[in-house]
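Progress report, Aim 2. The chain analyzed during this reporting quarter is listed below.
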Amino acid sequence: MKPSKYNFIIQHQGKTLIYNTLNSSLVEINPLLTSLLEQERIEVDRFAPFAQGFLREMAKNGFIIDDEIDEIKILKNIFNKARYRSNILELVIAPTMACNFNCSYCFEQGIDVEQGSPIFMSEEVQQALLCFVKKNIKGKTKLRITWYGGEPMLAYDIIFNLSEKLIKIAEENNVAYLPDIITNGYVIGQNPALIEKLILAKIKYYQITLDGTPEIHNQRRCLKSNPEKGTFDTIMKGIEALNKEGLMVSVRINVDSSNTEDAQNLLDIFEEKGLKDVCVYVSPVQKTSVTGDEISECPCLTNEDVFQMKDDFDKLLKKKGFKVFENIPRMHLVCCANLHGAFVIDPDGDLYKCFWEISHKEKSCGSLINEHSKLQRFQEIKYITWEPFEFAQCLECKALPVCMGGCPDRILRNQGKPDCSGQDNIINHITKSIKDGKIKENIYVFH
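Predicted structure tokens for the chain:
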């Protein structure tokens, strides 16, 4: 037998912990047994009965494996099954690319909705979308829809109209209908009566962004039509109304070096309003827009700062009694960009593989209206055929199962090379989560 190539051995406060990224197994062992897992070749029968029992237990959990086993091939098989899965039709639909906000860091800078895409999805495109779903839903078990934009709630009539018909298609084909929405929340806060129709549209999950307390948020996320008018109170009104109806709200805080501390202060407001069951998380502002240009004057955090910021925020969430996801880092296989049968759709019916490319016409991989060109077909192929197994640094990396080469969009911008910008963060996250006792309930102790 031989040790798995995906074992992390971590020494902390006199304890030895081992985590395997391929199997998500985590154990605490007697430090004296560590050397048994560091040998190139492990002949179990050569050891004393106690050591044999230990090694067999390690084999059950994937820390040691048979000599004939090739873990790269196992991981490659899992990866291919995930990206070519055939039971889910996954669509991100933007009924409009218009937005009522003017956020300085928005990654969709460079999209001119007046000269480019239609502001709202036409009836022709809506019908083509429904035909596309009917054609591709056969044999599926799930239809997953994400309403996106722009600001999708500016086109709520289109959302409600399409939802009614998509629900019917799903029911006729005995397919689970699973919609969610990414929205700035302003329209919902302006008109909470819309929530009744959102419930009829079966939208249970909402991602809404707040960038801190009112003073900071209102500077960063202001209205296009009236930059001096704050948006915080209206958005919070919508969050409270959604929460009251038992709908699942995730509040995303876009963070850079200018609002890191204020993001933590936002939790005090949620605590005062009794919104501890709302999922609140921080996400770093990206420096690159959808056009590939750098966003001007973006005080972005370094990878190291992002890791520390998220760790500090999670500690504060836990201290205040909010939801905190503290599970062991698990295998990350694919996103919609490299998933076969998943598309992002803009208002004029163009298809894309990634959120970041929407309405960037040269990145389109097809159309609901027009015939696909060979170049468009290749835009899809280059996403779904990329794999990390072609690169030596990935093949040798212990973090590969929980990284899989990184963000597909960043990879393709980097001439197809792996995005290792977050690799150290993954390794640090694994190590620090274990050392801080965040995942102690998952630890099997073997002494």
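The first strand starts at residue 2 and ends at 3. Residues 303-320 form the longest helix (18 residues). These observations will guide the mutagenesis work planned for the next reporting period.
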